[in-house]
Amino acid sequence: MPKMNVIVDMGTSNVSVFCKNLLLREPNIALIRRKNGAELVAFGSDALNMVGVTDENCSFICPVSDGVIVNSEVAGLIIAHCLNKVLSKKLFTAIKIYAVIPCGLSVAERESAEAAFYKAGYKDVTLVESVLGFLPFVDGAGTAVADIGGGTTELAVLTDKGILSGCSLNVGGKEIDRRVKDKVLDIYNLAISEFAAEKLKTEIGSLYDNNAASMSVAGRGVLDKSVRREDISAENIKGPISFCYKKIVDVAESLFTTIPSGMVRDVAARGIYFGGGGAAMHGLQDFVTKYLGINAYIDPEPETVILRGIDKLIESGKTESFHK
Ligand SMILES: Nc1ncnc2c1ncn2[C@@H]1O[C@H](COP(=O)(O)OP(=O)(O)OP(=O)(O)O)[C@@H](O)[C@H]1O
Ligand SMILES: [Mg+2]
Q1: Within a domain: residue 230?
Q2: Is residue 285 part of a domain?
Q3: What is the number of the ligand 1 atom nearest to the C-alpha of 28?
Q4: CA proximity to 244, closest of 305, 171, 294
Q5: Does residue 192 sit in the same domain as residue 223?
Q6: What is the pTM of this model?
Q7: What is the pLDDT of residues 187-209, one digit of tens each?
Q8: Which of 8, 13, 237 to mutate to test the pocket of ligand 1 (most atoms within 8 A of CB)?
């Protein structure tokens, strides 16, 4: 019976499982009931559909915070659930997991990531920094890459041997959502949910100037507490969005100071390759060029580039830079 390689990304916003070109991708949220231990009642979009209709023994838990698994018990339940969906364990003698992690995890954080897989019954686990997933798509001589996720942005300069220099920045889509929510409160006196803020960001948010789009959103009035709708303009939420992308661009620039000075010019000339859900923000390419004076390349399918890249590395046996 064959051995199966499975790539699992337990992200702050989404769980992705990639196996033989089959992709499962769901919001990383579990509805958990506690009686004698934790029981997974629902997961992902099924769990989100149960908001407001659960009993008091149930709670919604996201086991990942800022890219790090903080609840390995719940993470283990999610992993077991997702892998059961994707694989029929009976068909394989061995399953090898490649688990996507951020750059620069501490030993304890790595152990916590591994523990989640062990709890799910998977013992053969190799940790892989997400930025390595860009390797098959960039020039191995030295290229800057950025994975903009929900909780973190992973930045690195890669060579064909792996990560020359990298860092993990606690800025991602969730911070943008919180800031958009605060902005709507400030300007419109309207309290909206972070889900609504995320929808505003993904549907009308952009880094371009003079964006005339707007979107109607429901919320609660601050003064009279009544539920009402407002047309939110893209111009009014541009500030919090560009603030966060500017932080990312600033850290990308400082990353260039950590590589050998003889390489800086060549690395800058190659530009930065972007992936992760946050790379889909309209206007990112021009924004990066405006602030850094270098080219930006956005992967055409930014949400899956890391998984596809790691899969390519495994298939071609180029796994020297993975953690055994
Ligand atoms: N069109 C879009 N524009 C801007 N942001 C987007 C867009 N589509 C999705 N996002 C954001 O991308 C983020 C999710 O990306 P991704 O799935 O790569 O994160 P993750 O891997 O779960 O998180 P992390 O890597 O930080 O642990 C969310 O914050 C989501 O709002
Ligand atoms: Mg990610």
Answers
A1: yes
A2: yes
A3: 22
A4: 171
A5: yes
A6: 0.96
A7: 999 999 999 999 999 999 999 99
A8: 13
